[in-house]
Amino acid sequence: MGAGTEPDGSSRSDEEWERFLRESAAGAADAPKEPSARARGMAQRLGAEPGRGREGRRTYAPARPKRRTGWYLVGLSASLALLAVALAPGRIVDLFAGADSPPSAAETGRPDGAPPAAAGRPTRDEPFRGSPAASWASGAAGITVPKAGAVGWMSAAEVEQALARSRDFLVASNLDRGVLRGERPEKAIALINPRQEDVQDLLRTAFRTPSEKDDPLLLFSRFQPSRTRPVGDVVKTRGRLTYREGERGALQVTADVTFVYPVTRADAGDDGEIVRTIVRRELVLSWDDPAKVATEPGTFSIVSYKYDMTNGGCGAPTGYFTPPFGADRRADGAGTEVDPYDRSAPVGRGGSSGDECDRATRS
In 141-276, which ranges are continuous DSSP H helix? Predict the structure, then answer.
């Protein structure tokens, strides 16, 4: 019958011993630690039977082909990727440049240097591709407003409201779709102290007969719709508001914000050239105490204004940004080279005529 006897007197059939040997090979937890002499003989007999021996070894075999197949596929994919880069490197760079960029953290202070370079070219669907602005916030979201505290004649709640209205002015003067299309910025003008005569003189003259002295671009971003149209509905922004106590206890708010406008020719098709006009503005606004200064409630006086502009045109002021397209681009190397995305230095004044026109190192 082929029964074996263990030290404790129990017996096992041949089939049980065969199962024992297989489980031992597989590391079964309940296998006897010291098999009998019959078990060792059975092990020798199983090793002599080719079919059974191979089946025992195949217990671990499935894992090996899977690992070999995986490495083979990885190697094949890597080889194909290298071949694609060799044949069309520009397309591969554009592919990765088109991926969503991680959003930049809000700006709460002046940065130490310029943002890193970005690869890629602007397209109709991705007009900020290849620009640091691709990771910037859109519209008003890119303008950081600090936490409000009491200053001078204003309580913390009043300072908070003044900061919000200061940002409203930036939105109404640089982001409003109608204003960008050349309309008069009525909402923005309504926030300016009507009793500030010098600024009111500028506003009365600038839209009728723009000049170097009275140019609406000193305060407002405008494009001539017959010449230029925006690409998409998004303007990228980056900057911040700060505040302190000014003269006679006034709340003095300083805005330092960069606006990036992707535009094309008004008559361009879907494959028309895309240019990014980049404007960095610094405004100092004074929210004065009506008991001490002639002003209207809910309005501010403009202490100072200046801006840097690239890809906005050169020559005599027209009251509009005039981005250069094609042959209009300056090729003579004239003008001061500037990085329009570098916000680490104070705002200068980007000229709008003659040799004062800045030349962007990137757009």
Answer: 156-174, 177-180, 186-189, 197-206
Model pLDDT for residues 132-155, shown as the tens digit of each residue? 999 999 999 999 999 999 999 999
Distance from C-alpha of 274 to C-alpha of 265, rounded to nearest angstrom: 8
Distance of CA 258 to the CA centre of its chain: 14
Q: Look at residue 102 and tell me whether its pLDDT is greater than 80.
A: no
Q: What are phi and psi of 7, to 5 degrees?
A: -55, -30
Check pLDDT > 60 for residue 178.
yes
Report pTM. 0.72
Q: State how beta strands 337-338 and 359-360 pair.
A: parallel
**Phi, psi torsion values for 302, nearest 5 degrees:** -90, 115
Structure-model confidence comparison of residues 13 and 2, the more confident one: 13
Q: Which amino acid is at 275?
A: V
CB 146, CB 241: distance < 8 Å: yes
CA distance 127 to 232: 8
Two tokens, residue 95? 């592919």
